[in-house]
Amino acid sequence: MNPQRRLRVYDRGIPIGWLLRDTLWHLTLPEIARSGHLSFVFPELALEPSRLISSAVLWPTFAKRIPSKARPDYQLMLAEYGVTSDDPFEYLEKSGGKMMTDGVELRR
To answer: Which of 10, 17, 63, 101 could potentially form a cystine with 105 if both were Cys, beta carbons 3.0 to 4.6 Å apart?
Structure first.
């Protein structure tokens, strides 16, 4: 796995795990007990924090942080963060995946 393709997952400023990308998406949240929000979203990781889960599709909790290509301002949003491709990982990496509705953030 390319170590450059990983983002630290934070909840309300507390580091709780990693989101990784190669041909699949991978997630590990060893500190999930410190997260109120994500322990409900990923109950399998709340029960077994050291577990690594994988998926061909980005989990909705993270996918909703990426703007739809159908938005009229989609290209402006990419440009705002310096995103140069349609790669969802690049968008999450450069935008931090921040939303007003929760405290989840992604950082390199």
So the answer is: 10
